[in-house]
Automatic annotation (TrEMBL):
InterPro entries according to UniProt: IS1016-like_transposase (IPR053164), Tnp_ISXO2-like (IPR024445), Transposase_Zn_ribbon (IPR024442)
Lineage, top ranks: Bacteria, Pseudomonadati, Pseudomonadota, Alphaproteobacteria, Hyphomicrobiales
Name of this chain's protein: IS1595 family transposase
Domain of life: Bacteria
SMART domains associated with the record: DDE_Tnp_IS1595
């Protein structure tokens, strides 16, 4: 299995044809043993074309792409590999319009490709809680009302504008979790924090009312930004604020606009890259290959 590709040029040099891509995907997907994507049996027959297989139990014939985000794709895997390279190694991701030009496909296809990759990059719910020193903060995503036509301006709770709320928790030097929440009320906020942060940890937040009462479960340190305080006894919220700066540069600078329906997916994509920021390009790309189980149909995406 080829694992060393530190640039897009190296990637294409390593995977010169479709069979090389199939071999790489097979080596990662079946690293712990071969299995049938239909029934899970591990008695697998190989055909001479090296592209298809047959289950010894259920007798189904399949390719290595069945049961993954690549199932039923009409695009060659080499184009998928290039898309994976770009979304995992560009710090702010890539726009579907740009990807469409780079891969010579339609913008609709590029949009679907990127959403299938975001589906692979979703955070597993069974991840261990964050612990030690953890920072948490909320932010708002959405267009400014004065930039909209008068008949499209919306009324909401934040500055007179209807904006989407994101809550982030990040372990100092560790992982990041982001949740798209309905509002910033105490109950909503703490329903995200409590399962994601281990009790007894140091939790650093600003003075926001949604964080009241957390001292029952954590060593809660509050930084009062309204009074010009940006650190207390060496504790700060700089890490989570840097996350928001990076996410907003991704949304505003790369995508320009993200619908509320898909906002969580874009946040997951950014969090996935952040949590692998110390990885080399090849292992980071292979880490996404290890997450490709689970098909996403177009009708499910746009439903």
């Amino acid at each position: 299995m080829v694992t060393n590709f530190d640039s897009l040029f190296d990637l294409m040099d390593a995977f010169k044809d479709e069979q090389a891509c199939i071999n790489h995907l097979r080596a990662i997907r079946w690293a712990d043993g071969e299995f049938c994507p239909h029934c899970g049996a591990n008695k697998i027959y190989h055909f001479s074309d090296r592209k298809t297989f047959k289950c010894g139990d259920c007798k189904a014939r399949f390719s290595i792409k069945v049961g993954t985000i690549f199932e039923d794709t009409k695009l060659p895997l080499r184009k998928w590999f290039m898309a994976i390279w770009m979304i995992t190694n560009h710090p702010k991701g890539i726009a579907s319009v740009t990807l469409a030009k780079d891969l010579k496909i339609t913008q609709k296809s590029a949009w679907f490709v990127l959403h299938r990759l975001r589906h692979a990059a979703r955070t597993n719910s069974f991840n261990a809680p964050l612990k030690g020193e953890v920072q948490s903060d909320t932010t708002y995503i959405g267009g400014k009302q004065h930039n909209k036509h008068a008949d499209k301006r919306e009324v909401g709770s934040h500055g007179g504008a209807k904006m989407e709320t994101l809550l982030g928790v990040v372990e100092t030097g560790g992982e990041l979790r982001i949740a798209h929440t309905e509002n910033r009320k105490i109950g909503t906020t703490q329903d995200v924090i409590l399962p994601n942060v281990e009790q007894g940890s140091i939790l650093v937040t600003d003075e926001g009312g949604e964080f009241r009462g957390l001292e029952r479960d954590y060593v809660h340190i509050t930084i009062n930004h309204k009074k010009g305080e940006y650190a207390r006894d060496g504790f700060h919220t700089n890490s989570i604020e840097s996350v928001w700066a990076l996410l907003k540069r991704q949304i505003v600078g790369i995508h320009h606009w993200v619908s509320p329906k898909h906002l969580q997916k874009y946040a997951n994509e950014m969090a996935w890259r952040y949590n692998r920021r110390d990885m080399k390009p090849s292992p980071r790309m292979n880490d996404l290959f290890a997450c490709v189980e689970g098909r996403l149909r177009y009708r499910e995406l746009i439903a």
